[in-house]
Each structure stands twice: as C-alpha cells, then as structure tokens.
Design brief:
With 62 residues, the chain is mainly α. The protein is built from 2 helices and no strands. It starts with a helix and ends with a helix.
Length: 62
Amino acid sequence: MNKDQVKGRVDQVKGKVKDMAGKVTGNVSTQIKGKVEQVAGKTQASFGDAKEQAKTAAKRRP
C-alpha cells in the first residue's frame, strides 16, 4: 500500500463524515464540501491503486 492509497481513503472517510454532518445539521455547504472531498479521495486512491498495479506488473516481468 502506498501513500496515495492511504491518503485517498482517509480523505474519502473524512468527506463521508462531513457529508453526514451536513445532512444532520441541514448545512448544505458542509454537505457539498464532504461530497467533493469524497470524490477527491477516491481519485487519489485510484491513482495509488494504479501505481501499485504498475509496480506489481513490473516486478513480474523477467
């Protein structure tokens, strides 16, 4: 697991918490910020996943 995967997944969780807090409090701004953070986190985690797959594939090549 690389730092992009970890940071991306942490950001996804933080975004989900903000989204839920926005829903509970009725604060649309917080809810939107949470959704944006979730998308950014998912993007970063996907980038990290791709890096890991590339590294694994490179190790398999003779």
